[in-house]
Design a protein that fits this description.
It is a single chain. With 363 residues, the chain is an alpha/beta fold. The protein has nine helices and 17 strands. The N and C termini lie far apart (62 Å). Bound molecules: FE2/S2 (inorganic) cluster (FES). The site of FE2/S2 (inorganic) cluster has 13 residues, from loops.
Length: 363
């Protein structure tokens, strides 16, 4: 590649780096990601987009690994070093991810069938750091924004989850987050390893996702890798609601994420309902949506399937949104009625006293 020099900043606070044969003078403490962009390397938001994909941009997902002076570094949070040489990985990017757990669970997630919930441990789960959304009320922020724990390989994660399955005597193994789908190669390899270690018919491999990155080919690859249960969560019917809930301020991007999640649900039901248990999550708080929109969401899901399992999560105050008021028990029962009236037959609501099942029983 021809070498050229791009003068970005000639102040004393600048340093020189070389990116894929292109020399740059850049401000000190600039991230590697920014230096890549300045060198004309495209940095994408979704898996497979751009020369480098950087979906979380907070250091948790390890999708954006590049080589700086021969060492793997996360482009999104690592500052450039004076004189550094930066290379892209082509085929052999290390597969790493920060993961919390495993831990046993009594209720599981939106993709856990309601009839197994709550009687004893039903599932063991791990939680992957990094997310493409920025929900101010992130219900799992201590995992989502962890960029300091030791990352592990797909094999290590699969081995520890399998060991937890044996220890707790369950058949269901789940990954949630953060958002597991942001690092596609890591996730696919994780499920392949998990399936290799759990070949029996009883083993259920569960992905709990927001669905915003689940394109058709991604879903095909996940099912091929052995996934048996998938939960997706379109966060609203309207893009304004999606933006409020997720903190995504770029409207076209929010629209794309929202539509991808709805299309993922449609595709899962139409193509895989005989092989994959599908669950839908709806986050509810009146600060985000009125009953009218809840009805719209119910109707849209019912137009895809009246019987699909729908789990409504009562968003409570946490993280950067401590002013939220948790919906009351009675309010959640009303939400359940609205969705039932919109045509849905399998609605579960999370409340302050536990999950209420389709037959109005406490699970
Ligand atoms: S985008 Fe850099 S770690 Fe996720």
């Amino acid at each position: 590649m021809a070498r050229r020099v791009v003068w970005i900043d000639s102040e004393p606070g600048s340093c020189k780096v070389e990116v894929e044969g292109i020399e740059l003078e850049v401000p000190r403490n600039l991230t590697v990601k920014k230096a890549l962009s300045m060198a004309g390397v495209s940095v994408g938001l979704a898996p497979g987009e751009g020369d480098v994909s950087a979906p979380c941009r907070t250091g948790g997902c390890y999708s954006c690994l590049v080589e700086m002076d021969g060492e793997p570094v996360r482009a999104c949070i690592t500052p450039v070093r004076d004189g550094a040489s930066i290379r892209l990985y082509r085929e052999n990017q290390p597969l790493l991810r920060i993961v919390h757990g495993p831990e046993p669970h009594m209720v599981g997630g939106k993709g856990t069938p309601w009839w197994v919930k709550g009687r004893r441990y039903v599932e063991v789960a791990i939680w992957a750091a990094g997310c493409n959304l920025r929900c101010p009320q992130c219900q799992n922020y201590h995992v989502t924004y962890d960029n300091a724990s030791r990352p592990i390989t797909p094999r290590e994660a699969a081995v520890s989850l399998t060991a937890a399955r044996i220890a707790y005597g369950v058949n269901r193994m789940a990954i949630s987050g953060g958002e597991p789908t942001v690092n596609r190669r890591w996730l696919i390899e994780f499920f392949r390893e998990l399936r290799r270690l759990n070949r029996d018919d009883k083993a259920r491999l569960h992905l709990d996702s927001n669905g915003t990155l689940l394109t058709k080919d991604y879903i095909d690859e996940l099912v091929e890798a052995g996934v048996t249960d998938i939960g997706v969560e379109p966060k609203g019917a309207r893009v304004e609601t999606f933006m409020k809930i997720t903190g995504i301020r770029n409207r076209p991007l929010a629209q794309r994420y929202l539509e991808t999640a709805w299309r993922a649900l449609d595709y899962l039901i139409s193509e895989y309902s005989d092989r994959v248990f599908v669950g839908v999550g709806i986050p509810y708080n009146r600060a985000f949506m009125m009953e009218e929109e809840l009805w719209e969401i119910g109707e849209r899901i019912a137009s895809i399937s009246r019987d699909v399992q729908v789990v409504v999560l009562d968003y409570f105050p946490t993280f950067r949104n401590r002013r939220l008021r948790r919906p009351s028990f009675e309010e959640m029962l009303r939400v359940k009625r609205i969705l039932g009236d919109a045509g849905l037959r399998t609605v579960i609501v999370q409340t302050s006293i536990g999950h209420i099942g389709p037959n109005d029983e406490l699970l």
